[in-house]
Design brief:
It is elongated, with a radius of gyration of 26 Å. A two-stranded antiparallel ribbon has the order 1-2. It has helices at residues 3-40, 43-73, 80-89, 94-140, 157-163; strands at 142-146, 152-156. The protein starts with a helix and ends with a helix. It contains 5 helices and 2 strands. The chain is 81% helix and 6% strand. Mean pLDDT is 85; it is low at 157-162. Helix 1 runs antiparallel to helix 2, helix 1 packs parallel to helix 4 (94-140) and helix 3 (80-89) runs antiparallel to helix 4. By secondary structure, it is mostly helical. The chain has a single domain (3-122), classed as Methane Monooxygenase Hydroxylase, Chain G, domain 1, CATH 1.20.58. Required for the efficient initiation of filament assembly. It comes from Thiolapillus brandeum. Keywords: Bacterial flagellum biogenesis, Cell projection, Cilium, Flagellum. InterPro entries: FlgN-like, FlgN-like_sf.
Length: 164
């Protein structure tokens, strides 16, 4: 193996290890966020986790930029499928391929965890809006009824009594 290629593999190995470590830390933050959203309901903890998550994502972006420069220097596109193809075809790159596959798998897990957390937040927001609407209806004298098509309608309670 030429010296330049050996240096490239060593640098890429080191970089992929750092990316994998940073992605594992992000996964831990996301898991803690899921727990905080589901069980703890601690707003200060959530704000802390959001800050940690932002920092970790920023660190990961810097590592990806570093990887893009490294790959570009050897004429390989930083596209994940291109990296996978290169690492799959280079016999000497098998340890790199293993790290790369771990990184891709962990990235997918982080995306799913983040999507789950977003869904939890969305459902909580919907429940909050529904509760607020119920409180507003009680305070304004409005009541919710169902129309002939099964859709919720809002009618003033005094009009309902006057129509009955």
């Amino acid at each position: 193996m030429p010296s330049g290629q050996l240096d490239f593999h060593r640098d890429l190995f080191s970089l992929l290890e750092r990316e994998l470590k940073a992605m594992a830390e992000l996964k831990q933050i996301l898991d803690r966020e899921t727990s905080a959203l589901t069980y703890e309901r601690d707003s200060e903890l959530l704000l802390q986790l959001i800050s940690e998550k932002d920092t970790q994502v920023s660190d990961l972006k810097h590592l990806e930029t570093e990887r893009a420069r490294l790959m570009e220097g050897t004429g390989i596109d930083n596209d994940p499928s291109q990296i996978t193809h290169y690492l799959s075809t280079e016999v000497q790159a098998q340890p790199l391929l293993h790290l790369w596959q771990q990184l891709l798998s962990l990235t997918t897990q982080c995306q799913e965890s983040n999507r789950l957390n977003g869904t939890i937040i969305k459902l909580d927001s919907q429940h909050l809006h529904q509760a607020l609407n119920l409180l507003r209806a009680e305070n304004s004298g409005d009541s919710h009824n169902y129309g002939p098509q099964g859709h919720t309608t809002t009618a003033n309670a005094s009009r309902l009594l006057g129509q009955a």
